[in-house]
Write a structure and sequence with these properties.
heterodimer, A: mainly beta, seven-stranded mixed β-sheet, four-stranded antiparallel β-sheet, 56% strand, globular, B: six-stranded mixed β-sheet
Chain lengths: 113, 114
């Protein structure tokens, strides 16, 4: 019954590898997001999709490529991983109608070694 | 751009103490305001929200009032419990581009001891 689920929960990988994180929501929302939380707990939006279309891209390196096959899914693919990519990545979703809350997944802790 | 400023943590309290976590915001227009809580190893959960000036959001004994005149949304609880230990994030909804995104403060860690 998880509203926003993302996999995997933990991901440990070597520099230079390519990895993906998957996210699915069953709330019927039409907007989905990826947020990055750094080691100091600071949260910053990376991408937002509305009905499968990219609407927000916050100057994230091109190595990060989101993909939304349908409005219930938003995956994040990362190429050529770097040490600085180590963080917790959160998927979230909300209704498009503005000023509403977002619902978050449990997070994926990515560690690049 | 829009931003949220929270007090630095950690905030350390004894059980049953009164809690205040300050939050102020800078925004054009009239954003909605939120408090989220993150327990260790978990994702963010919405704690409470307010959508317009003078609204009071409340949940689980926590409350916050949307103060437009002071651009503030301070979180309060009358009597904290050990189980309230977590990181608390103040956030606002930014619809500057026509689409929403949440802008978060830096988070405030609360530690409650028995």
């Amino acid at each position: 019954d998880t509203a926003v689920s993302q996999t995997p929960k933990y991901l440990v990988t070597q520099m230079g590898n390519d990895k993906s994180i998957k996210c699915e929501q069953n709330l019927g929302h039409d907007t989905m997001y990826w947020y990055k939380q750094d080691s100091k707990k600071f949260l910053k939006i990376m991408f937002s999709y509305n009905n499968k279309e990219l609407i927000i891209n916050e100057t994230v390196p091109n190595r990060f490529s989101p993909k939304s096959p349908d409005k219930a899914h938003l995956n994040l693919h990362i190429n050529s991983l770097e040490l600085g990519d180590s963080a917790v990545y959160f998927c979230a979703s909300s209704h498009t109608a503005g000023r509403t809350e977002a619902f978050f997944g449990q997070g994926t802790r990515l560690t690049v070694v | 751009g829009n931003s949220v400023t929270q007090m630095e943590g950690p905030v350390t309290l004894s059980e049953e103490a009164f809690l205040t976590i300050n939050c102020t915001y800078t925004a054009t227009g009239y954003p909605s305001l939120f408090w989220y809580v993150q327990y260790p190893g978990e994702g963010l959960q919405l704690l409470l929200k307010a959508t317009k000036a003078d609204d009071k959001g409340s949940n689980k004994g926590f409350e916050a009032t949307y103060r437009k005149e002071t651009t503030s949304f301070h979180l309060e609880k009358g009597s904290v419990q050990v189980s309230d230990s977590a990181v608390y994030f103040c956030a606002l909804s930014d619809t500057g581009t026509g689409f929403q995104k949440l802008v978060f403060g830096t988070g405030t860690r609360l530690l409650v001891s028995p």
